[in-house]
Amino acid sequence: MRERWSAGEHAGSHLFCELKERGYTGSASLLGHVLGEWRTALPPQPRRGPPRKLPLAPKPRKRRLSSRGAAFLMILPPSKLTQVQQQQVAQMNLNEDLRAVSQLSQEFVTLLKERQAEALDGWLKRAKACHVTELGSNVFGIRRDYAAVRAAFCPDAGVMAPRRGMSTGSNF
Fold first, then answer.
1. Chain-centroid distance, C-alpha 125
2. What mean pLDDT comes out for the span 152-159?
């Protein structure tokens, strides 16, 4: 076997067949272990066959849009969306329920920015009629805290009335 190895025959299956013809009773795996030790002493061989193709660029991993990310896109003004975000919004708008939630979310943000308290009740009715469970729970929460939400819509909502001792810090 050593002579055949030295002559350049390094294929384990060929050597195993030749040994079997000469009466070898051992297993192929035992021969494989011996040949494995002999192969470590061989110089590295150049790769045979066509050269391997290298990838041009690593494929970017696409991350799924989280519900929080989708909600953010629904309230972001369309003019501030990146191209990728515009594609995500377009994909979401293919779904009728998501499109309705997106439109209602945009309306709510506009009403709040423009302090249109008188339009809140109409928005609540349209949102309730939407029949999207998550939006319905938001409507319930807004109705539960209606006075506070309505106050946030008023033009002077950001102004706090001074409290006694507020300027001096003496209300300890």
1. 34
2. 66
